[in-house]
Structure formats: C-alpha cells, structure tokens
Amino acid sequence: MKRIFTIIAAGLLIAGCNKFKDINVSPTVLTSASTKGLLTNSQQALSSLIFGNTAAARIPALYVQHLAEGPYPGPSLYSDRNLSFSTWYTGPLYDLQTIINYNNDGNPSAVGNGATENQIAVASIMKAYIYLHLTDRYGDIPYSQALKGNEAFSPAYDNQQAIYTDLFKELTEAVGQIDETKPKVAGDVILNGDMAGWKRFANTMRMIMSLRLSKADPVKGKSEYAAAVAAGVIESNSQNIVYQFIEGDPNNYNPWYNNYVVSNRNDYAISKTMTDYMAPKNDPRLPVYAEELAGGEYIGLPYGFITAKNIPAAYSRIGDYFRSQGSPVTMFSYAQVLFMKAEAAKLGYTAGGDVEAALHYYDAIKASWEQFGVYDAAEYAAYIALPEVAYDPANGHKKIMTEKWVHAYLNHSWEAYADWRRTGFPVLSPAVDAIDSRGIPLRTGYPPTESALNPENYNSAVSALGGTDDNYGKMWWLK
Amino acid sequence: MKKCMYAWMLFLLSMPMIVFSQARQITGTVRDANGIPLASVSVVEKGTNTGTVTDANGAFSINVSRANATLVFSYVGMESQELVLGTNNNYDVSLSATGELSEVVVTALGIRKEKRELGYSAQEISGEALIQSKQTNIVNALRGQVAGVQINSGGGAPGQGSRIIIRGVKSLSPGKNNQPLFVIDGIIMDNSTITGGDAQASLRGMSNRAADINPDDVESISVLRGGAATALYGQAGSNGVVLITTKSAKAGKMRVSFTSTYGIDEVNKFPDVQSVYTQGYRGVYDPATIFTNWGPTVEEAKAIDPTHPDKLFHNYERGYIQGNQFRNSLTLSGGTENALLTSSFSHFKQNGVIPNSDYQNTSVRVGGQFKSGTLFKFSPSLNFINSGGYRVNSERYNEILSYWSPRWDVMDYIKEDGTMKGYRDNAVYGTYVNKFKDNVNRLIGSVAATFSPFSWFDLDYRAGIDYYSDFRRHAAPGPRGLAGERNFGDNGLGFVNEFRISNRILTSNVMGSFKKDWGEKFNTVLRLGNDVRAIKFSRLTSRGSELDIPTLLTINNSKVRSTDQHEEDYRIVSAYGDLSLGLNNYLFLNVTGRNDWSSSLAKENNSFFYPSVSLSYIFTDHFLKPDWLSFGKLRASWAEVGKDTDPYETNAYYISNVLTSSNQVTWTRGNSRGDQSLKPERTNTIELGTELRAMNNRIGLDFTWYKLNSRDQIIPVFISPTSGYTSVITNAGEVENKGIEIVLNGSPIKKQDFSWDVTLNFSRNRNKVISIVEGLKEIVVGNWFGYVGSTATMKYIPGYPVGNIYGTSVQRYYGSKADDGMTVDNSLPLVIASTGSNRGFPVRDLTQRILGNSQPDWTGGISNNFTYKNLRLSFLFETQQGQDRYNQLGNYQAAFGTAPFTIDRNDTKVFDGVLPDGTTNTQEVWMGQGVGPDGRDYTDGYYRNVYRGITENFVEDASWVRLRNLSLSYQLPSKFLRTNVIKDASITFTGNNLLLWTDFSGFDPDASSFNSGSNVDAFTGFAYPAVRSYLFSINLNF
Fold first, then answer.
1. Which end of chain A, N or C, is surrounded by fewer C-beta atoms within 10 Å?
2. Is A368 in contact with A389 (CB distance < 8 Å)?
3. Which of A1, A16, A86 comes nearest B721 by C-beta?
4. Widest CA span of chain A, in angstroms?
C-alpha cells in the first residue's frame, strides 16, 4: 500500500516539476525583441510625446500662441507646472538604448535589421533627438547614468551644458558611423532606411543646437554650426524630414484628426495673435493654417482668457492641411534651415552680416510658401516688400525670428518656443488671465515623482536651478 | 463529461418511480438533551434502505415495512440511538452528545477533526444560518457571523462582488490578492474578481466568482483563520481559507425540497440635497450650463423662465428605481446506504436599482456517494453554473447624475426616435445604450475516493476541476446623424469590445492516513500526502470602434480594430504531512509540515517549507473542574506560512504595441522589472486562545489572540523612470497584524416551546506597516479623484497602519508647536488667509496628511434566534466601528452647489480661526459667488475656490451599525397540509439591511468605488449604492 502511495506521489511530483522553467515564461510576450520592432515603436512614440497627441505635447503651440484654447482654458494660462517624463525614458529612450545594446552585444534580435553601424547610428540620432527635446524642456536631466535598468535606480542629473556637449559628440559619431553601402536600417517609418537622410537629420539637429548656444556659449556654437553645415544639412524642400501619418489607418491617424474628429473635441483654434499678424499681410499661408468660416473669414481666438468660448463656427480651427487623417508633421524643414542660416549670419556665426542674413531670410520665406504649396511670385514680391516684413538691419533678428515663428506653425512649435525663450522673439504678450504673473513659462517642472523616487539627485538638480522647481528657473542656454 | 451528466439525469428521472411499500407509519420528534428539536437527524429502518430525516421541528415520519422494526437515529456529534418499535406509532426520541459535547469540524484538506483537539480557533457556520439572510452572494451570507473576518460588499448591484479579508491585509503590494482561498468539497475554487483587460470592468461591480455558488446547496462553511489552521494548504492558504461543504444526501426515501423567493430591493440611503437654488452660475440663471446649482432661487428662475418646474427634482432619488429578485431552487436527494444521490437546480434573477442593470444565475448540481461496505467509498460531484448580466458603471452613472441639474428631470431621457433627450449627457440614457454584459459558464467537478483496506489505514484521493469561461461584451452605438441628435459622450463614434476569458484550476490530492492507538491513553494519526494544482488563465480582447452602420453592434462593422492576447500558466506541487498525538483525550498535539514547489519563482528559490505546531489542552477533563465550568480548553499554535508571487514576475518583458499599416509589429519593453532571486513572502503566526462553557453548556466563550508578522513582502518598488523602468519587483518590507476575536454564545431560554439563542462576535485587528523597501518612503495603494487637489490617496507608510487616507487639509496654526508634517492636529485653530483673493477664508494645506483610516477599529455582530412553537424569528445586528471613507460624491456636491450646506451662500460670516500671524480672524466674508454685498468680487465663491479643494472636508467617519438581517418564518402545522405529498411547508419573511445608523453623509458607506478584488477600500461616493431588501419565500418539502 505504502509503495503504491509512494509511486503515485512521486509520479505526480515529477510530472509537476520538470516543466517548471518553461511555465514561468509568458507565452504572449517576449524576453527579447527585434530591433526593427523597437525602432518603429520609438518613432511612433513621437506622435504622442511631441506631435500633439497629448495635452502636454500641445503646450508649445499654446505658449508661442500659435493656438488658443476655447471651452476649457488651462495650459494656455500656464496651468501645467510639473509634467512627467516617465514614458520618454521607459518607452522610446529605453527601446533605442536596447537597439544599441543588442548591436554591441551581438544579440540575435539585431540580426537582419540593417548593418550594425547603421542601426547604432540611427538609434543614437533618435536618442539624441529625444534627449535634446527633454533637456530643452526641463534643463538638467538624468542622462549619463540613465537607462541602466538594474544598475542605477537613481540616476544623477547631468547639467545641460554637459548634455549638449555629449549630444554634439554623439551626433558627430553617428554621422561618421553611417555606411550607406551597407544594409539600411529596417523598421524606420520616418526615413524608410534612407541613410543619407539620417545624416541630414543629425546635421540639421546639430545646426539647431549650435544656435541654441548663441548666448550661453557662442564660441562652441559657432564652431559646431560650421561643422554641421559642412557635414550636410537639408538643402531643399524635397529633403524635408517628414513624419507620415496614414490616411485610412486609424492607428496612424494624425493626432489633430484624432482630437477634432475621433474624440470630437473642439478645444483649440488658431490664435488671434497669429491671424492678427498674417491676415493684414494677405499671407497666403493663412488659408492653409486656419479653417475658413462662413463669409470666407479667418477668425483667430483671442489668446489667454479664462472665459470659456465655444469654437465651432465662431473661430477658425486649424486648417485641414494639419488635421486630416494623413496630414504629415514636418520635423525639420528647408525653410527652417534657411531661417537658421539667416540668424547665423546676423549673429556673426558666419560671414556676410546683414546682407547674407537678408538673403537667407527672403529665401526662407519663399521656401516656406513653397512648402505649403502657396508660392506665387507676385504675391511673394509684394509680401516681402511690406514694411513689417522687409529686412532691415536694426530689426533684423526680430524679423528673422518672427517670420520663422510664422513658418513654424504647429510643425515646429517646440522650436518656436525654444527660440522665443532664447531671443525674446516674436514679441508676445503673456496670457491676460495668466495663473502666474511671471508670464510665459521658461521651463517645465520636474515630475513630482522624482522628489520621492530619486530625492538626492532631484534636490541637487533643483538647487542648481536656484532652489525652486518651478516654470521660471533659467536653464543653462537661457542664461 | 456530457455522457456522465445524462446518466445522472436519467437516474434522477427514474427516482420518483421507485415505490416504497407502506405498511405502517411511525411519527415522532427528535430532541437533544436540552429538549431542543433536532433537524436533519437521519432516521433509518435498520436492515432496509428505508429512511428519512427530521424536519426543522425535529419531527419525522417514516413508513416501516416490518412489525418489529428497529429505527436508527443518527446525527453528527450525537450518539446514534436505536429504537425498537413497540405498538405505539408515535415516539419522542432524545439524543445525547457523543462524549462530552463532541463537535466535528472540517479542517484543512477536508480532514474532519473533533473540535476539542484543535489547537487553533475554528468557526463553522451552518447552511441554515447562511440561507436565513437569503443573500445572493455566499460571501455576504457570512457577514456579521464570523469573528476575525471583514466583509465589504462593494455595493448593491445585481451580482456585485464582495470582498472578504481574514485577519487583515498581509501583502503590501497594491495588486496582490489578500483574500482567502475558497475550497468547495475539497476542490480549490476560484474566487477572483476579474477586471483585467478593461478599465471599465473594475467600475462595474463584477462578481467575485464565489458568487456563482447557490447558497441553498451549502451544508456548512468553515472559516480557517490562523496560520496553524491553514498551514496544510501551504501558500494557497496564506490569507486564510473558506471551506464550503455542500449538502449531501441521506439514506432513505427520496426527498424533494422546493424554495421560491421573491424580493424587492431599494436604495437604503440617499444623499441629501439643497432644494433652493437652481441651475446657473454666479447667481445667473442658465438652463444649459454645467453648473447645476449655482443659479438663482427657484422663484427667481421661474420669473425668468416660465417652463422652470415649481420644485427642483431630487435626481439622486429619481435616478434609482425599485429592484427585484426572484429565486427558485429545487433539491432532490435520496438513495440507499450504499448509493446516495443529491441534485439541485436553482435559478436566480435580479433587476438592479440602477436602470438597465441585472444579473441571473442558473445552477445545476449533482452529487453522489457510493459505498462498497467499509472498504471503498466514492463521491463524484458536478456543478454547472451560468451567470452574468448587464453591469452598469455606477461610478460614471453617479458622476453624470451629478452633472445633471435638478432643474431637469433625469428620467425624461429619451426622444421618440430613440436618441437622447436633454441639455447634456443623461445618465439613465447612458445605461440604456452603453452596455456591458458578462456571461459566465462554469463547471466545478470533483471525484473523491476513499479506500480503507485496514482499520488503521485510509487512502483518500481527490481530483477536481474548476473551469469557467467568461465572455464579456461592452458595446454602444454611434451617432445616427439625425437632425438635432445629441450623442451620449461615452459612446464616441460607437464601439464593440469583447473579452473572452477562461480560467481553469486542476487539483489533485492524495493522502494516506495511519491511525494507531497505543493503549487506552495514547493515540496517533499520521497523514501524508501530495497535492498538485495547475492554473491556466487566458484572455483575448478584441476591440472595434468607429462603427460604419451606427447601430450595428458587431466588430465586423467597425473601422478601427485591435486585438490583445494574455495568458497565464501556474503550477504548484506539494508534499505534506500531519501528525496528531492525543493523550487521554485531553491533550492534543498537532504538527504539520508542507513543502511547496512553485512555478512562479526561479528554480533556486521555488521550494519552501511551512511548519506548524498546535496544542489543545482540555483542562476540565484533566484535573481542574470547578462546578460552574462545564468545559474549559486552552489552545496555542505557531505556524509559518508563505506566499509566492504571481506568474512571470521574475523576468522583464517586451510587449507588442500599435501596428502600422505596413504590418510592422512594434515592440516595447514593459515598465516593470522582474527579479530572478524573488523568495516567497513569509507570515509567522502565533495564536493563543481558550474555549469555556458554563452553566451546563448554555453559555460559551471562545477567545483568541493572534499576532501575524508578514515578512519579505514581494513588492513592486517604484524607481526613478529615468533608469528605464518604473518599478522593480523585490522582497522587502514587513507588516504586522494582531488582534483579538471573541465569540460568545448563550441559550438564555431553552424550553419545550420557546427557545432563545444568541451569538455575539467581536473582532479587533490592529495592523502596522513595520517596514517597506529601504529608501522608499511610501507605497501608494490607490487614489481617487477630487477637485482642485483634493484627490484622496491610500498609502502604506512605515510606522503607520494599513488603510490610511491621505490628502490636503485645512491649515492648522502651529505657532511654536512642532508640526510632524503627517498628522492633523484637531486641537489647533484653523489658519485663515489674511491676504490674497481668498482672504478671510481657511487656508488649504497642500501637505499630504493622514485624514483617516479605512480599516475598522473593531467589528462585531449579534445574532438572535427565537423559536416559539412553529414560529421562528432571527435577527442579526452588524457593526463596523472606527473606519473612514473618502466621499467623492460629497466633493462633487460641494463643487456644484448641490450639498445642503451650500445653502448659506447668501450669508456673511467670519470663519473661526487665526490669521497666519496668530491673531484672531475678524474678516467678514460672503459665502456666495460673484460680487458680494460688500462689493468684493468673490469670483467662484468659497465652495468652489476653497472648500472643494480640501480632501479633509470629504473624509468622513464611515462607522455604522445596521440591522443586517431579520427573518421571520412560520412552519405550517401538518394539519393544514391535508396531504401526504407535502411533508412540511414554511413561509418566511426576510429583510436585509433594514436599518442603518451612520453619520456618513452620502450613500451607504459600505459600498466601495473599487472592485471586490482590490486592496483599495478607502473610497466611496459614486459606488453602486447598497440596497435594502424585503424577501418573501416559501419552502416546501415533499
């Protein structure tokens, strides 16, 4: 009897035990993922994080008054004080880091998705793009110790200057690493593996960063600028770097389409600040930027009032160009590059002074019109002859930055916000009903969780800011 | 399996045809030593298969075939008695207890033990006591009846899940299960409340799966609370065990029992509202604004708008209707000594108090017991259940109801063309078009076999399956494009979401028992066994939105589709032993050991051992026996039990994300990092207790003291997301629970025709978070929204009890007194602002401070049972004292000017308190909106600018006392029955939740905003309100 019992018990034990190891691996997820899938995911994340799928991503368009809020004024009155950066780090940044790690470690998940050098280069450029965005919003952020998983639970905050220095280095190395003769990267939904395009992506970014240093470190800015342009930036509208949303694919609708149509919201309209600038000048971009109302009118919504206003039929929503299912987002544009060249000349980064600046300035406006498909030689000539537009050395910087701001509508709102903080142009009046009398915020406050989860490093970052983690601390390049 | 069921059914159908000879009818009554009638005593004619059982009055009636027949009366815990029949046809029989009040209770793994030998507390509730309250959820039927057990029904939704916690929360991880293991007839049964895959499900009062069980099938429930009691279950029993024993047949003639119950339900408590001020903003009437009650008075509004009603509608009352419920259940049982069969059928339907919410449950059960002499016993059992219904999102319902101005009737919600009527989203219309339904098909089957080849050895084997599929569907139409159509906001462009869930638990348990008596004085029982359990869970979610044809609710009709697959596999294998030593029948020692091998931990850590020791000493049988004491026992036990982790927590994973149209699958790394070195959590339990009975057993006391320390908590620790992970899972932290449990019972009156029994139970559990992970200050368990920073949060913080509620408060004036930054010192004056736009009003303190605690200081219940002849009255009072809840409804009522206290809006007052410099506040302020009589612009006014933003204002004392249940039943005298077909009949009136005493301002605070599977119990307000029920039932026995 005992023997039978023992046999049964032993049998059951064995049956139960030997497959334990497999049981505890989830059958519906992976322990290591293809770098192709990780790259696509990182790129698609930009849609929600930068291009406007979340309220946080719409902030710069409000701060620079491209848009105004209707029924529920909030962010336009500067109500957002501290915002999370969690999904940036745990999502695209970590995935991009994983692509780099897999390639460096020879992980099979990287095989077949492009040459190792090209994969590492693209992941590094994308990573730099996101870090640049983050440091421009927050200032000092975890960088060198971040994304190390179990090795560092509480990463230190690097100062912005060090981050910029390293980003320049990373981008330069990435461009050097790209080998167009080797297999292109797979899973790239931005440039479809166009490795020359990724070089221009990186160099244009360096150009942007170099101008960001115009106050904090113009010497470095100047040399980086020269190097970036020499390495090859965007030189025509056909080289614009465009994120494609897809008509007929609900998972890849343009965020503004989702907001206006799918979610049936009418929270945003073009701001009166924009229409007041554009309408009197007969700017042909206005019908592209804004919805035409009854009577052929384009009415901007006054910016910065706490009183709720209903938008439909009363104020122009954003134009169909920007909010159809497949409306693209232009991440970097030729006009943007030309405006930067104009500014570089004006600031003395390059030779030629105002003459050179004016030349690039006019070309930039032309490129912008061409980009939006509204270029007409006669209208253009009339436009640039307007006294408010025509270049004059005394107001050169202001005019370059103001027209750049017009061009930047929605596509480059984050850039326009950084430009405004650095140069003070265009001249904007803060929200009338601003929550904080200090006006337009200069930065985003750190996520509240950091003070609890990473207190020591958080505290030292805050003391570097001057002791207060609010929206008005000045980051390094602003000083 | 199907074939098997057909066979049972055939057998059942043939039963009424078995004809018994009717030679002579013997009747009589069976009573215990105190003259109390005994129900369910088996009465069998010796040497035949003829038998019956006594009814509720102890009466029996049996037809015997032989003239000199002998009747055998047997009853658990009583000495069997044989009665040789004489010429009389009527007999009164008295049974005496075996030994001295021997009571057999079901303990771990179904082992039946005499209660006297247990070294830990055990409380068994009879089926009779359970069905008395006619509760639809078996968990609710335990309410107020068991010490050490805290039960909170999530609310009054049809089929709503109930939460049960035994001796406090033991796992600090916010997502971890703290509810006991449910075992039905030895088979582990799932009692989860599934809400995964859809955020909506957690707000829709989904059933805990034990609610599937038909309460009429239950013979008794044993609640195993302490570590020593549950140690044999290993980690599965670490939260305690609820053992359900179903009814089995008794030998004899076929018995048929039919019960039919009809009941009505209504909300037992409504929030108060003010009825003076109507819709508008800053005193200006506006019949379309979201501001439901910040307008002028009704009279002023009527002057502007003649269509304004004379009186405001109380839409909280109007939005709730009368619910009803209907249950029919039929039980058939009978058989011979060697072949017994029982079967039951029950159907239950309930319509809820929120329109368009309902639940139904159909259960079919067959169980049998077959014997081959004493050598072999075989008991198969099968229970099929179909349950589910339309579940309403009560949180959303009450929220939308709060946005609906009482200027409008919320019940006027639909146009002739079927579209929504009204000036904004209507809550009632929402339940009509936005529907969520679950449909569960469940099979619980088991086979138990006992082989007894020798008098000293038994071999038991039990195998079982608990399988269910749960098909859920959440669908709503899109806008139809009609002129003037108003689309219900939550419906979007229409959607259909389907969730296909299945869960399977397989159990196999083999146990050998060796018994040996070493002479008169010393006896031993050794049990050795092996236990295997395998769980497989899967969930497939398909979502479709943007419907092409707006009213065609199929995924095929949707433009946007997505699918998600989730699977879990878990297995645990165990070996165990249990050694019982008895000395002189007054000293008992029990030692158990169990080793588990779990699949959810890494190989190096997946084996763990749990020991337990318990001692029972009946001192009154040894030497000390004062006259007044009839029975005295001391008990002590120690145990260590463990708890493993959920599957897949030892790794980090990549999950697939949104697809692109180019068919590129995207992957991203999950945010939580697993740990290969995870160990099981461990709980040490010490339990001491005594059982005393006096006055010839008419008064009994059971006292227990316990202390539980749960160490090595498996917790997801939140880390800076800049590391790339938001959390890592690790072993850290300790929580302590200690408490006392007292059960007092007495029989103050015990007479032939009249008896009164009373049971009182009292429990107090104190818990404290000893430590959490080093470097971490707190674990956030959950939070619930409140306006402008008044969100309430439930957190675990070392040094403080589990269940603390944190939030903003009114600033107190500390002066030179130290502020600990954590508590609110109510003895200090309030700080009133001296400058700024809120000058003259209390200052908000944004520090998160402790505002209350959701765990009761103590709980208790008193049940009374009166029997007078054929009448029986029982009632149960239940209380939970010293607990707080955050009232979200109160927060909304303050924000919208609905709350009764906002009626002072045209008053001017001076707030009691001091200015920030410590001087007394004298600033007069106006309580309304806009420009006050003093010319100052108060903008949105005190209630919106200040009051609603202070969590403290909405954390309320949620203690309550309630008349949980009252039941009056009448047994029809047999002379009225006039027939031999019906043996007995009774009618019963039952009232549940009849009276409630509480200071809480909203709905009944017993309802929770979180689902019954959640550890978050601190929030209520918009939950499905509790109901008061009146039930009438009739019971017939054939």
1. C
2. no
3. A86
4. 107
Angle value at C-alpha B337, between B334 and B341, nearest 5 degrees: 35
Give the span between the Cα atoms of B166 and B149, in whole angstroms: 5
Question: What single-letter amino acid sits at A310?
Answer: N
Q: What residue has token string 């405004």?
A: A420
Q: Which of A25, A48, A90, A185 to mutate to test the interface with B (most CBs of B within 10 A)?
A: A90
CA distance A180 to B793: 55
The reply to whether residue B647 touches residue A26, judged by beta carbons under 8 angstroms, is: yes
**Cβ contacts of B780 within 8 Å, gap of 6 or more:** B174, B793, B794, B795
Q: Give the Cα separation of B482 and B403 in Å (integer).
A: 25
Residues B257 and B331 sit within 8 Å (Cβ to Cβ): yes
What span, in angstroms and rounded, lies between the C-alpha atoms of B607 and B772? 24
Sign of CA dihedral B944, B946, B948, B954: negative
Backbone dihedral angles phi then psi of residue A15, each to the nearest 5 degrees: -55, -35
**For the whole model, what pTM was predicted?**
0.84
Nearest beta carbon to residue A453 from set B508, B601, B720 = B720
Count of C-beta atoms within a 10 Å radius of residue A166 = 15
Q: Which of B51, B1, B687, B14 is nearest to B338 (CA)?
A: B51
Residues B666, A34: C-beta atoms closer than 8 Å: no
Q: Cβ–Cβ of A154/B666 closer than 8 Å?
A: no
In the numeric block, which tokens belong to residue B963? 């008349």
What residues contact residue A10 under an 8 Å CB cut-off, 6+ apart? none
Which residues on chain B are in Cβ contact (under 8 Å) with A40? 660, 664, 666
DSSP B920: B
- Name the residue facing B720 among A37, A93, A450 (closest C-beta): A450
- Could you report how far apart the first and last alpha carbons of chain A are, in Å? 87
| Mean pLDDT by groups of 10 residues along chain B of 1038 residues | 42 39 74 76 80 83 80 76 80 68 77 87 85 86 89 88 90 86 90 79 87 90 90 87 89 89 96 95 90 95 96 95 96 90 95 96 94 89 96 94 96 94 94 96 95 92 96 94 89 93 95 90 93 94 92 93 89 94 92 93 88 94 80 94 85 74 75 85 93 88 95 86 88 92 91 90 95 80 88 92 94 93 94 91 93 95 92 94 96 95 95 95 95 92 94 96 94 75 89 96 92 90 94 92
User: In this structure, what token pair is assigned to residue B624?
Assistant: 């000390």
Q: How far is CA A303 from CA A73, A300, A435, in A?
A: 9, 9, 14
Q: Assess B566–A contact: CB distance below 8 Å, yes or no.
A: yes
A24 part of contact set with chain B, CB < 8 Å: yes
Q: Give the span between the Cα atoms of A422 and A407, in whole angstroms.
A: 18
Beta-carbon contacts of B986 under 8 Å, excluding residues fewer than 6 positions away, are B56, B969, B970, B971, B972, B1034, B1035
Half-sphere exposure (Cβ direction) of B676: Cα atoms closer than 13 Å: 4
CB pairs under 8 A between A and B: 209
Check CB contact of A437 with chain B, cutoff 8 Å: no
Three-state DSSP at A266 gives coil
d(CA B268, CA B1002): 11
Q: β-pairing, B376-390 with B435-454?
A: antiparallel
ipTM for the complex shown: 0.85
> What are the beta bridge partners of residue B850?
B806
Question: Is the CB of B290 inside 8 Å of chain A's CB atoms?
Answer: no
What is the number of residues in chain A? 479
Calculate the dihedral angle through the C-alpha atoms of B608, B613, B614, B617, rounding to the nearest 10 degrees. Answer: 170
Of B441, B572, B466, B506, nearest in space to B184 by CA: B466
- A-chain residues within 8 Å CB-CB of B569? 23, 27
Place of tokens 């209907």: B326
In angstroms, the CA B347 to CA B327 distance is: 6
